Amino acid sequence: MARRASTEFPRVVYASFGWSVGAGDFDGDGRSDVVVGAPWDRVGGVANAGAVNVLHGTSAGVTASGDQLWYRPVGGAPPSAAAGDWFGFAVGG
Ligand SMILES: [Ca+2]
């Protein structure tokens, strides 16, 4: 799985951001983080490959500062992104 700052990633209308929502401590800092699926997001030109946004928890609550976008990489060895993957259709934690 690839990760990058979500502000660097091209987004599409109708990505269905918020289709799925979960929580867990994904960076191991002891605070809960929120994961939000966008299963119809476009990844590297691949339609409907999907992505997951991770918003980190802080002592003041959840923040978009330093948020990440997780997605399957385009090209290379599987599991690479493919049209219709809908990565992020379901998330949990
Ligand atoms: Ca955390």
Topology (elements, then pairings):
Elements (H helix, E strand, L loop, with lengths): L1 E4 L14 E5 L8 E6 L12 E8 L2 E11 L22
Antiparallel strand pairs: 1-5, 2-3, 3-4, 4-5
The structure holds calcium ion.
Summarize the structure.
The protein has 93 residues and is an all-beta fold. 0% of the residues lie in helices and 37% in strands. The chain contains no helices and 5 strands.
Describe this structure in words.
This protein is mostly beta strands and about 90 residues long. It has one domain (about 1-70). The chain is built from no helices and five strands. The protein has a five-stranded antiparallel sheet, with no helix packed on it. The protein is globular, with a radius of gyration of 13 Å. The model has no long low-confidence stretch (mean pLDDT about 85). Bound molecules: calcium ion. Calcium ion binds near residues 25, 26, 33 and 57.
Bound molecules: calcium ion
- Structure classification: mainly beta
Radius of gyration: 13 Å
Beta fraction: 35-45%
Largest sheet: 5 strands, antiparallel
Q: Count the helices. How many?
A: 0
Which bin fits the share of residues in helices? under 10%
What is the overall silhouette? globular
Please report the distance between the alpha carbons of the first and last residues.
17 Å
Order of helices and strands: EEEEE
Total separate domains: 1
Look at the structure and give the mean pLDDT.
87
User: Biggest sheet: strands side by side, in what order?
Assistant: 1-5-4-3-2
Q: Any low-confidence stretches, pLDDT <50, length ≥5?
A: none
The total beta strand count reads 5
